[in-house]
Design a protein that fits this description.
Blueprint lengths: L2 H12 L11 E5 L2 E4 L4 E4 L2 H4 L8 H13 L10 H14 L3 E5 L2 H20 L5 E5 L8 H5 L4 H4 L9 E4 L4 H5 L6 E7 L1 E2 L5 E2 L2 H14 L2 E5 L23 E4 L10 E5 L1 H4 L16 H16 L2 H22 L3 E7 L2 E6 L4 H9 L2 E2 L1 E2 L4 E4 L7 H14 L1
Parallel strand pairs: 3-15, 5-6, 5-7, 7-10, 10-11
Antiparallel strand pairs: 1-2, 2-3, 4-12, 8-9, 11-12, 13-14, 14-17, 16-17
Helix pairs in contact: 3-11, 4-11, 12-14, 13-14
The structure holds pyridoxal-5'-phosphate (PLP).
Length: about 400
């Protein structure tokens, strides 16, 4: 029995079985390649579910994180620290938002956004029965609040009751949203591009109409940019492609490029009239290590012209996948923007993904029938060609 199989067996004895894992133990990474513990290399089109935007082993990033480890890892949110202050400045600059709260994960950022919306509405009318409208097929995380606004019933069912007063509408169907709006609505929450739900970008008109409803009724528009944000769409945040701006935004995944951080951000109008001292907190969130990682990530995005690369290679990936789509009758749709794209088949894709893995290509699904493409944002056209070659062999 190989060393890899021994570790897998051990994992299956010791770790709680909350994932059906692919049969591989990854050990290191370089650039856009991963290596398993037996030395086999894999081209990575998942980047740890949209995390490793800069690719693996970016020297400058690694040095910055190591330097912060040697300096100080953690203080507490009862004190100020320079990396968090610099990180806040950097993310405000690229997002145009005014206030930020740093978290440890995406789900926790969504929790914060929900609390912000409820508090904002509470301060206006003193009621405690406010409602949030979320979308069917959305994904916002696994904690109870984030799960409550996640539009996939099978994720929620065994854990009922959820937090109350959540209504669901259909993505890109503005009438279904209007039908749920009433005088208790405090927020409309959606992913700008649905990720786990199958790579469904919001239409521009849908976003604009939601913006309008929110403006007219002073409801908060919350955009979840945890997967589609941080450059993946070709802009820092996907909503920037449409000339609208949310009131609250969540971010995580590629924000730390491997250091577990998230954030929720808001406009001043919300920041000055929602969460106050004592309303919310976290031990680790916004600590010096996370702050240092965020600062370096955003610095490298600029320096390495990451957005330009996403736009150029994203378009090339789109064309490449269009060609593959035209070759095959079992591909029914191709969606996405930048380097968040999906190919929908008329059958489950698990076998394709397993064959690709055997051939040294890491892919992931989004729902049973959709292959999702979330490569590091630094991939090249040659990497796309290599991916397409292995994908064709695996189909
Ligand atoms: C991954 C994800 C989350 C949850 O983030 P975690 O860091 O896993 O808690 C929330 N929303 C979206 C859109 C995501 O893709």
């Amino acid at each position: 029995m190989g060393i890899m199989q021994e570790y897998i067996d051990e994992a299956e004895r010791d770790l709680l079985h909350t994932y059906n894992r692919y049969q591989v133990v990854f050990d290191k990474g370089e650039g856009v390649y991963l290596e398993d513990i037996e030395g086999k290399k894999y081209l990575d089109f998942v980047s740890g579910i949209g995390v490793f935007a800069l690719g693996y082993g970016n020297r400058e990033y690694n040095e910055a994180v190591k330097a912060q480890v040697d300096k100080i890892l953690h203080t507490s949110n009862y004190y100020y620290n320079v990396p968090a202050i610099e990180a806040a400045k950097a993310i405000k600059k690229v997002s145009g938002m005014d206030r930020v709260f740093f978290t440890n994960s995406g789900a926790e950022a969504v929790e914060g956004a929900i609390k912000t919306a409820r508090k904002y509405a509470y301060l206006k009318d003193g009621r405690t029965d406010h409602e949030i409208i979320a979308m069917e097929h959305s994904f916002h995380g696994r904690t109870m609040g984030a799960l409550s606004v996640t539009g996939t019933k099978k994720y929620r069912e065994a854990f009922e009751p959820m937090i109350g007063n959540i209504r669901f509408a259909q993505m890109n169907d503005i009438e279904s949203v209007k039908a749920q709006v009433n005088d208790r609505t405090c927020a409309i929450l959606l992913e700008t591009v649905q990720g786990e739900g199958g790579i469904h970008p919001a239409d521009e008109s849908f976003l604009r109409e939601i913006r309008q409803i929110c403006d007219e009724r002073d409801i908060l528009m919350i955009l979840d940019e945890i997967q589609c944000g941080m450059g993946r769409s070709g802009e820092y945040f996907a909503w920037q492609r449409y000339g609208i701006k949310p009131d609250v935004m969540t971010c995580a995944k590629a924000l730390g490029c491997g250091v577990p951080v998230g954030a929720f951000l808001m406009r001043e109008k919300v920041g000055s009239a929602s969460l106050k001292a004592g309303d919310h907190g976290t031990t680790y969130g916004g600590n010096p290590l996370g702050g240092a990682a965020i600062c370096k990530v955003l610095e490298l995005f600029e320096k390495e012209h990451v957005l330009d690369n996403v736009n150029e290679v994203g378009a090339y990936l789109f064309d490449t996948l269009e060609v593959i789509r035209a070759e095959r009758e079992d591909i029914v749709d191709h969606r996405g923007v930048g380097l968040i794209q999906g190919l929908e088949f008329d059958h489950p894709v698990a076998d394709i993904i397993n064959r690709a893995l055997e051939k040294g290509l890491v892919l992931i699904n989004a729902g049973q029938n959709i292959i999702r493409f979330l490569p590091p944002l630094v991939i090249t056209k040659e990497d796309v060609d290599r991916m397409a070659g292995i994908l064709r062999e695996s189909l």
